Amino acid sequence: MDLVLRRGILKDDEVIWGDIQVIASMPEYRTMNPVPIVNKRTNSIVLVFVAFPQDLSEADLIKGQEYQQKVLVTKSRDNGLTWSEPRDVSETTLGMMDPRPHIYASGPGHGIQLTSGRLVVPGSVFWKPPHETGFLSEIKHKILEFFDCFYNAQSRSMVIYSDDGGETWEQGGGVPAAFDQEGQLVNANECQIVEFDDGRAYINSRTLGVQTPRQQAFSQDGCLTFNPGELATQLPEPGHTLTKWIPSVRNFGGCQASILGFRAPSSVPPDAYDMTSWVLFSNPASTETRVNMSVRLSRNGCRTWSAPWQLNSGASAYSDLVGYETRTSDRVPVLNFACLYECGSLHPYERIVFQTFTLEKMMQGVGMETKAEPTQDIPESALET
């Protein structure tokens, strides 16, 4: 399975999409979960992704003793036209984890470069802690594992990082799990990160509980450690139709989401609680199913969030946010954003949409049913490989 991209060129407020390009081709492996980071110090793009053996299913991977996969990195110095040969950094990242994970997934979505220059790739790990021993315990474990290969598995969000522009990579901090209202440990999963102007990093994670909101945590030391996770009750996410009778991460509630940090615009009158760093958040804003792709804004360091501003009312799933600046004919800067997301009529995986909007329009529409700019579809035929 190839890892591919399409380059888009912004021209007269319209994105002109190029043809599909292959970034990496790995025979006998499934390449997945690309995490791009723009290295502003070298004007290059660093891309981290994972590869799983093609003949091993998810069930095979979680039943193994430890990871059976690769973590790879490639670079582009010409805005994605060409890419270096992928390098395997599994041993310095997954190989240093204790316990070693059964499955590691990078991202998905963008990573970030901290003010220090550090490159940070958010991700998550699955592992199985030792279960109770004894005859009856073994029988119970085998029966439950027969019906659910993820029985007794745990998941948490974590990061890997590089301090030399992506040449070498190390294990970063993991987020200590939050607990729900019933005192049960929350299994966190796919995540993204922003950095505030005061140097703190904020990580926002999908949770796998059927009715659990998102998890959030902060780091004071460049993502080497994180404070214990806490539930972000203002950020609900979709549940799942699977039952809670078997206590397992296999219920797989929630959905991937995206966060993006940016400097507060000087044109907006400041609020008493405003920070200089603002954050956008996108996800399917529903507690039931994957519908209603929306964007929220936090102006106070992710302590509170605006009401959701709807991009798409129908079925929608994974997303990623990006910001960019344009100028009016009078050379006045305009802060723009784009959301790349999955959506469809019958289910969320019919097409991928690239939708642009301005901060001004988003702020005007917060709490109302105002629509964003018309969507621009990436033709489904162009996504086939």
UniProtKB/TrEMBL annotation:
Coiled coil start-end: none
GO molecular function: exo-alpha-sialidase activity
Transmembrane portions of the chain: none
Gene Ontology terms: biological process: ganglioside catabolic process; oligosaccharide catabolic process
Domain Sialidase per the UniProt entry, residue ranges: 2-322
SUPFAM superfamilies in the cross-refs: Sialidases
Pfam families (UniProt xref): BNR_2 (PF13088)
GO CC entries: cytoplasm; membrane
Family: Belongs to the glycosyl hydrolase 33 family.
Organism: Patiria miniata
Protein name, per record: Sialidase domain-containing protein
